[in-house]
Amino acid sequence: MGRINTNVQSLIAQRVLGQNQQSLTSSLERLSTGLRINSGKDDPAGLIASNNLGAEIVGKNTAISNANRADQVVNIAAGGLTEVTGLLTQLQGLVTSSASTSGISDSEKAANQLQIDSILQTIDRVSSSTSFQGIKLLNGNFDFKTSSVNAGVSDYKINAAKFTGSQNVNVLVTGSAQQGGMFISFGASSIDTATGSQFTIEVGGSAGTRQLTFSSSTSLTNIAAAINSFTSITGVSAKTSGTGIKLDATEFGSSNYVSLRVVNAGGITQAGQQGIYDLQAANSGAANTGSKQQFTAVTNTKTNKGKDLQATINGVAATTNGKTARINTDFLDVEVTLTDTQSRTLGSVGTNAMTITGGGASFQLGGNVDIAGKVSIGIQSVAASKLGTSALGYLNSLASGQSNNVVSGNTDKAQQIVTAALNQVSSLSGRLGAFQSNTIGATVRSLGVAVENSTAAQSIIRDTDFATETAKLTRGQILVNASTNILGLSNQTPQSALQLLG
């Protein structure tokens, strides 16, 4: 060891001291920040994974905030619907009260009509004033917008839809809807009973039954009129057809039917075409000539049920009831009611039954902004001019001077409209409640769990393990002190060469 120009031991000590100081500095940084990864050099792959998880966590937390906001929006809308339901219930009572022809004065009816007018105005006010941050919720603002609605569609309701641009709604009728019915043939324009006998039948439907008795020479026109006078009670209508009478359920579908029982055949001659016939399976407008039964054979009730429509909507088999078909998928929840003619016509309902062009209340409930992370719900208007159906009429027809007012109008029809309006509002309330409970509630819970798991994963990757890092700090401190001492000793080594100079 006689060299003094190059101190290799000092160089080694300096290198080791620098490494130990770097390790100590890293431990101090991690302990002071609480992060294992403070820059890319600490763990490049871990930094990328940590940043990706951080972005997901922010997106999920924002989605939770969106879900909570959606819950508040729906709460406000549900509150307005509760008020409308109460008003409709009052309206139902007023219509029922005014339907009496005796025991109620004209002035009392007029007073009831004033209350009805006030209720209708209040419903319109609730519809236009229920809002969230100035955005009206119950005036149809969040109903879906459509165009090119086919003439074969009499009514429709879009409950939810997710799409980009526009969405065509294609309806294909695969099985026709039918009314329950049967044909009674008398072989003449009037009935001809035996001397002293009467023809008695019991006509029934989904609404009820009524027994009717007819004497000899009663015309088919009068028989049909008698049956029709009880249509609201039985749910069965009648019309003359040639030398007989065709009975039809007033509504389509398997829950509606026509029943007939011959209580007394009245001695009508059982010759020729006289008797009771089923209708043709493929054509409910014509009698099945091979199904004839004599009047005397129908002493037990004979029943013929209608058929529900069979259809697909956008390739999905629809749930049907009468002339109405509905599908409920993640991307489309739509209900379509067809006209009488269209519901009996197999094949596609035009090129498109309708096109959805926009609208609906849309909420981003996913961390990623894409169509899968969005949910939508249609909130129809509850204004008086929108509650009801095109077949029955709408709630505003109960106002003073309109066709279904309670002073001089049709109170039977008014009652049916109010019932339909109550069903509509109740259905909307139920859908909003299900949306809150199932869609929003489940989303918040699942996103909360996802945030917890993602945060835990990010913590494992990025956060400092203090137990391990404090051990490294102690080791680093010891090594730095040792390296410093060794450097001092190595710097003193060349001095031994001076002893050679004497």
Question: Could you give a quick summary of the protein structure above?
Answer:
This protein is α+β, with helices and mostly antiparallel strands and 502 residues long.
What features would you describe in this structure?
The two termini are 16 Å apart. It is elongated and about 165 Å long. The protein is 40% helix and 23% strand. By secondary structure, the protein is of the alpha+beta class. The chain has eight helices and 25 strands.
Rg from alpha-carbon coordinates: 41 Å
Biggest β-sheet, characterized?
4 strands, antiparallel
What proportion of the residues is helical, as a percent range?
Answer: 40-55%
Text of the CATH class of the largest domain: Mainly Alpha
CATH superfamily of the largest domain: f41 fragment of flagellin, N-terminal domain
Q: Strand order, main sheet: write it out.
A: 4-19-18-17
Molecular shape = elongated
- Proportion of β residues? 15-25%
Extract low-pLDDT stretches: none
The average pLDDT value, as a whole number, equals 87
Number of helices: 8
How many domains? The number is 4
What structural class results from the helix and strand content? Answer: alpha+beta
In total, how many beta strands? 25
CATH architecture of the largest domain: Up-down Bundle
N-to-C terminal Cα separation, in Å?
Answer: 16 Å
- CATH fold field value of the largest domain: f41 fragment of flagellin, N-terminal domain
